[in-house]
Amino acid sequence: MQNIKNIIFDYGNVIFMLDFQKLKDGWASLSINNTEAFFAHGVQDPIFDAFDKGHVTAAEFRNFIREKSGKPELTDEEIDAAWNSLLLGVDEGTHEVIAELNKKYRTFLLSNINPIHYGYIMDYLKREFGFEGNDHLFGKTYYSHFVGLRKPDIAFFEKVLNENGLKAEETLFIDDIAANLEPAKVLGIQTHLMAAPDTIQNFIKREGLL
Description:
Elements: E1 6-9, E2 16-18, H1 20-29, H2 35-38, E3 39-40, E4 43-44, H3 46-52, H4 58-69, H5 76-83, E5 87-90, H6 94-104, E6 106-111, H7 115-129, E7 140-143, H8 144-147, H9 154-164, E8 171-175, H10 178-186, E9 190-193, H11 200-206
Parallel strand pairs: 1-6, 1-8, 6-7, 8-9
Antiparallel strand pairs: 2-5, 3-4
């Protein structure tokens, strides 16, 4: 980690913790089988890519889940509960660390996300922390369903670099999925793979970034 002036953060399992076993159980509760191929860490049905890019509406996504489960009677609330079951929350102290980093570096959030998860997380941040979103913690936030791009699309990274005048070699990107780091490396961005049991707080302290 040399000459870092900018930090781009992934959100899930870097800042906001996820539990894929809970999601697996959630899909199973809706009678969706082969859940590892349907949606798991770094593997997912094409519907999720489209949903992340905003090419599929929440209503269309829910109808797909009804068709996939063979249960047309499933309510929106039941589907959302299963889909949101992997969302755990933000560890104590993480927001404070991010806020301190934002004083020293130009910081950005780059998240593959969809309208259902986005709505849940915005409600969570308001309820638990009194936050109106994440905008105050970063120089700029990029959510895939608003932008129409998702990692590992190299254009997503190019957009962040170009819009903000960032030099790739002065930029660090942190993500929990190895495939998402590859386009960043191609562009010359420094990268770090966040893997449990490591945490963003431990990483920042260990690397002396604060």
